[in-house]
Amino acid sequence: MARCFDALLGGKDHYAVDRAVVDAALEIAPGLVVATQDHREWLMRVVRYLAGTVGIDQFLDIGAGLPTGENTHEVAQRANPDAVVVYADHDPMVFSHGQALLVDNDHTHFALADLTEPEALLALPAVARNIDLSRPVAMLQGATLQHVADDRSPHRVLARYLDAFAPGSYVAISHLHSPADPAHAASAAQLEKLMLAELGTGWFRGRAEIEALFDGTEITEPGLVRPLDWWPDGPRLRARVPAQNLLLCGVGRKP
């Protein structure tokens, strides 16, 4: 999945087989490139808000994906040079690229871990030595929980992380969305079928299911919205496309 995202963002760290999956997805939803760019820009705005406005100085970016322009640590440390960022991913290729990128950054670390095992992930040295769970932390789950099947309960997985975090912590979540509108729902169903066949995971969920991921938090304004609608930096410069309706995002605060 990380390599498919890389292909959608115009990167070079993917193979022909990944490109073939992306091309098939673009046949179904031609605006996926725009939607993926929206998602990346949303993540940058969230990190900038949490590091600068809120004052969070430790970040746990789970399912980090392959390095690209404006990574979490770059955005956070621009707002606060002392901010600590720990990336976690279960893809060895992502881990290898991440370690190479961060070799000269003392405030940024990488862990090879499975997001569905919160206790094990939080106990890893790269996490336990650098994230102080007695203080507020920001956790990013960008397009990750859509890869956790219902029988593994993404809601319970997320709740276990929140239980470990101090009050005042934040969680940012984005998730593939199956809209109520029949036309958009049809595209979501086709994309889900493709992802399950080619990648083995990738479930589109309804708004209520995605909202439930924020149980135990107070969702900040503007609520659960499309990435392009979460505190945009300025006026809309691109025409809207249907694929932008296939992802919802939000930020919750643990009281």
TrEMBL record:
* Record key words, sorted: Methyltransferase, Transferase
Q: Do you know which SUPFAM superfamilies this protein is assigned to?
A: S-adenosyl-L-methionine-dependent methyltransferases
Tell me the superkingdom of the source.
Answer: Bacteria
The answer to whether UniProt assigns keyword Methyltransferase to this entry is yes
One Pfam family in the UniProt entry: Methyltransf_19
Under InterPro entries, the record lists: SAM-dependent_MTases_sf (IPR029063), SAM_dep_MeTrfase_SAV2177_type (IPR006764)
One GO BP on record is: methylation
GO molecular function terms noted in the UniProt entry: methyltransferase activity
**Coiled-coil ranges (or none):** none
Q: What is this protein called?
A: SAM-dependent methyltransferase
The opening ranks of the lineage are: Bacteria, Bacillati, Actinomycetota, Actinomycetes, Pseudonocardiales
